[in-house]
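Please go through the protein record below and explain what the tokens say about the fold. Record follows.
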Amino acid sequence: MKYILEIIGLSKTFAQSKTAVINIIDLKIKTGDILAIVGESGSGKTTLARLIAGLETQDYGTIILNDTTIACDTIFKAPENRNIGMVFQDYALFPHLTVSENVGYGLSKKANKLERIAAVLERVGLHGFDNRFPFQLSGGQQQRVALARALAPEPELLILDEPFSNLDTNLKIKLRNDIFDILKQTNVTALFVTHDTQDAIAIADEIIVLKEGGIIQKGAPKKVYKCPNSSYVASLFGALVPLQQEDLFCFGFKPEAHKRYALRIEDFKINEAADYVLKAQVLKCQFAGQGFLNTAVLPNKSIVNMTTRSKIEGFFTLGFKNNDLLVFS
């Protein structure tokens, strides 16, 4: 198995901080994979990306790119010598340069410069936009230019730092699908930094979750979503409904002592087959766009919320499947 990036014992503390922003991280990325880094604001995800790119220097640790050490105690390769492409949150396009000039900015020594610019613009769906300036482009088009510029030098690793945060929902979904296709077609290994876990689930081969500068869970998107190892990880991927032991007894489920339980708000079963069921009463039903947000009372007087596709009223059967129940130590 070929790893394009290996990180060993990486640590970083800023002068104004008493605690490590990156705290002894070990990490490997397989060639051709898309790795998503998620976590709350301040978890260290952008700092990790900047350390890999060479925009920050580590205190300790080693970074190896394609079997070449680019950072350690005795080596530090400058960003321009790492062959890592970056797509920034604000695109960072030069406003006085055309699309073609922006894309070719890092290709001054390349013999087939014009051919390469044309090829990457074709790849990102901007053929014919060569002579336009950034102000003449939509946000999505500017993001494509930024991607083309990062891909033009044929980087060994591409880092995307919150690439969709400035886009509206419809455009974001289309652009992330397009970027996923482009990365897979070109076999570019990518590190994708995002606070939006839905983006991570949609395009990543693997997800790492950071908290206080350390990796607390790593795995395939489905595994991290379905089997979070803590309530912190679970809450990053959607709203949770905590269930107390007395609530679970009402459903006919026997909880284990000293464990905590929760369901995702969308995982309750309403008037349908389930492993554990009870009769509940709706207190409030609010239209929420694609469905309804419901507040209900259980037989033990506990209040829970759940989402449904259709409106419910009065008493109803509420249940859940055993595989949907989240359990935390």
